[in-house]
Amino acid sequence: MNIGWQALLSDLGVHSGHVLRKAGLPDDILSRDNHGLTTAEYFRFWGALEDEVHDPLFALRVVETVSAESFDPPLFAALCSANLLQAVQRLAKYKQLVAPMSLDVEVDEAGAMTISPRWLSAASEVPDSLQVAELAFFLKLARLATREPVRALRVCLPTTPPRAYAQQYEKYFGTTVRGSAGPSIAFSATDLRRPFLTLNEGMWRVFEPDLRRRLNELDATATTSERVRAVLLELLPASSATIERTAERLGMSKRTLQRRLEDEGHSFRSLVNGTRENLARHYLNNTSMSGGEIAFLLGFEDPNSFYRAFHEWTGQTPDSARIQSSLN
To answer: Which of 20, 64, 261, 288 could be stapled to 266 by a disulfide with Cβ–Cβ 3.0 to 4.6 Å?
Structure first.
């Protein structure tokens, strides 16, 4: 997870030992080489840091504190890019070296780019402030590299900012934050191609071989079930979460995938159901989407199929689960 956290925590005025102990993590974990955190550990670390800082605008404060000096190689390599377009493409490839997540990137006909962070193997809810920080970071990167007041074209979050702080969020992003099933930030074609003053191809050539090696090592250590869950997050909304399609995405045969999951004590069907249940709970607890909309995002043929499946998983209806969540 080495993201220059030691320097960043110091700049925030936070004692790293307090945060790590509160998160139940070893005191030396930030100084270890090649030691990544699992998604659950990363969420605990972030939650402990948020408690320690205790600021309603915590996410924006963390990102504003980030400097080039606190960037680790994958992030510094992005800073060495020619522009934001190239930087995002590099980050999409190497993001897992920074945090247990991936980036979905789409470019529309007008040349605008939408970036959507996706957490890998997220068995619990993604902290709201962490989703804000992930989006704000891209804006920080663009502003830091271009020295221009770049604004986001569009910002979407599952949980919109409290009304008391909506103005600060709008001022930071340069646009109103909208509600959405998942977090995303979009940039105009003009800002995507705005030259980075930090361009350094020589430094990129130094970093790139090691980044490629580390990514290969990370892929080799990830369990098959973790890799399947990450792929399912992308396949479910497209109603293409079949074992054949998943095996294809992972570069193995269906038979090999089945055997490896069995060795880990899983089945493809159980992973699909577990991923769907986790996503369903997230949408019910954090959005106002209808059952039909959630069913569509989870790849069900119709809402009734989703309702039956949710009841089998939880013993509750989606409506009762949403009401219970609102009372807690």
So the answer is: 261
Each residue's pLDDT tens digit, 24-67: 877 766 665 545 667 778 888 888 888 888 888 989 998 888 77
How far is residue 54 from each of residues 5, 48, 49, 129, 204, measured CA to CA in Å? 18, 10, 8, 12, 37
100 or 147, which is more confident:
147
For residue 91 the two structure tokens come to 């980050």
